[in-house]
Every structure is written in C-alpha cells, then in structure tokens.
Amino acid sequence: MTSWKKWTSALLAAGIIVGSGSVWQDSSVQAASVSSKVTTPAEVTLKSGGKTLTQKGLLQGGSTWVSLTAVKDVAGGTLKYDAKTKSYTVTAANNAMTVSLMDGQPNVYINGYYPQVEAKLIEGRLYIPFSAMRDYLGVQGNWDGKNKTLTLSKVKQNNVKIKAATVSVTVKNAEVDVQYPQVSGLASKEAEAAINKVLKDEVDAYVAAFKKQTSEFGGATANRPYAFESSYVVTYNEKGVLGLITQRYEDYAGAHGMTYRTGHTFALDTGKELTLDDVLQNNKTMRETLSKKVGEQLKARGGYLDGYKGLNKDQDFYVTPTGVVVFFQLYEYTAYAEGFPEMPFTYKELLPKGTEPFGNVTGSK
C-alpha cells in the first residue's frame, strides 16, 4: 500500500473522510433491524427467485447482514479474491465493491471510493449490511418478520454501462491514480457524449490544477511524495436517471490531504445534468423548507463553524434509491474532523403525495 493510501486508511478508521450522515436503509427491511445492544447474531433465512438460499443472513448491531457470496448470487455479479491484497471484490450494477482485510479489519471501498459502509468478518465469512446491497449493488428486499425471512431480488435498472476510464499522469515524486466514469450503451449517442464530456472535462480540470500546484509548491520528495487520486461511485441507476459521486484526493505533504466531492445527476434520454431544483420539480416552497431543515441539522452537529445562510444556488447533492442527500465540502461549514456533513431526505418528504421521482425531467420509465 502506498504511503498516501495508508494515510487515507487512517482517516477512515477515525471516521474523518466518510460522510457524517445517516446510512440509507430500504424501508422494506427496516423491520429486520434489532437493538444495537444485541451482540450475538441471529440467523435470517434468505430467499431469491422462489428458492431458499444455502447462505444465511444475520441480524446484528441493528442491521441485517448478508454474506458476499449471497450478494453475488442474487445480484448476478462476480466475486473475486486477490491473495496479494487480501481482498474480495463483488462486481454488480456498475459498481465494484471491494472488502479488504489488508489492515487486519474489513475496509470497504467501491471503485476506489470510500462509502459509509461497514463490513463484518463473522465466523470466517464476510458480511455487508443489506442497505449497502440496495444502495450500490442493485438488490432490493422484503422482510417477513414472523418467519425471519428476507426475500431478495434484483432492481430493474437502466440499460447503461458505466466503466472506469483512466488518465496517465506523471509528476516527479507524486503518486497519482486517476479514474473517472464513462457511460456507454445509451439509445441517444448525443446524450451519451454530453454526459461523458461533463465527466471528462471535470477530471481534466482537476489534473491540470494538481500539476499547477505541484509546480508552484515544489518540495516533494521520494520519502514524502505528493498524491492525487480520483474515483467515483454509482449511487442511482433507475427510471431513466443516473446518479454518481466523483471524488478527488490531494496531498501536498502538508498536515493532511484534502478530499473533495461532486454529485452528478443525469437524465439519460437527454444527457442533461439535473440541479437540485430539477429534482424538487421546481417547487420553491419545498426548496425553502429543505433549506431550513438542512440548516437546523447542520447547526445541531458538533463542529459547526457558523456561516450557513441557506442552500447554495448550485447546492451539492446526490440521489439514491430512496431519496436525496444534501452535503457540504470539508471546512465549508464544519470542522475537518466532522467529515462531509450529509443530510438525507426521502422522496416522500420532498415531493407532493403521489408524485414519482424524476417524472418531470425524463420520459424514460
């Protein structure tokens, strides 16, 4: 592991660079949660496609946990083990989720991006929370509390492929790993090109800024190199809409590096990038209400530094299968140690009763 990635792992262990909001959980399996005081796992029967799976799920720590092998089987993906890095990678729904045991405890990252997801090693088997399957691997579930049974199925997703593209960058005494998303398979090649241009232009600008900074700063050494990484994760891929988070990490051999995130939401039929107002269906009253609620939550958090006067015109946000997450950058309104402040809101909270998410911005269903 390179020096800057060791530093990143240390920050993850301290809970610094992950988002500080609540983890999403599909409402259909919330009944499967148990008290966090429970330490002994209880078995859960897993079903899919009308059959009972040989693998068992677990109830522990307030969450429903599913083994990586069961995830692979239901998602229709692949599961690979890398002995060199002591890691398992499940690939499904345009994401590659890796659980690494290199540091002695499970660490989770997706396409190089570190989500707010915990993994557990229980009796020699790796488990992830069901919510992570729903959010990142395209699996939904229905909970039967009486029989302690979780029935899993694949989510109907858009017919689009998202793969990592790379940029080759050479800077003396700098460790650089650049990955960014590119889409293919859309019916409209114009929309496809428009989306890919936004994502490519973004990473090109980041790389150019990094090169300029390294040139101006100087001082990097082989023992304490500069570092730059970019990565991404797919957060939503349904109903003709694609949601992504892109992230970059920069380290100029200072006290600590800095991480920046950008949320992207695209209408796949036109290639248009949607704003928060688009998602709120241009409801000014709801925007004002949301702005107030975000402020209340932000100011109630530890580490609030002052300065919030309302949502930004180009407010950072991303979409998930269950709602919208409003977030802010490190240091924007909170201390660095608070990580990325994230405030999740369900579509039910944000949209008029009976309104379908994204019904106003795309003709794809």
From TrEMBL:
Pfam families linked to this entry: Cu_amine_oxidN1 (PF07833), DUF3298 (PF11738), PdaC (PF13739)
Signal peptide: 1-25
InterPro entries, sorted: Cu_amine_oxidase-like_N (IPR012854), DUF3298 (IPR021729), Mao_N_sf (IPR036582), PdaC (IPR025303), PdaC/RsiV-like_sf (IPR037126)
Every Copper amine oxidase-like N-terminal domain range: 53-151
Sequence ranges assigned to domain DUF3298 in this UniProt record: 277-347
Superkingdom to which the source organism belongs: Bacteria
Electron transport as UniProt keyword: no
Keyword Signal: yes
Keywords: Signal
Stretches assigned to the Deacetylase PdaC domain: 174-259
Name this protein carries in UniProt: Phage baseplate assembly protein gpV
Organism: Paenibacillus xylanexedens
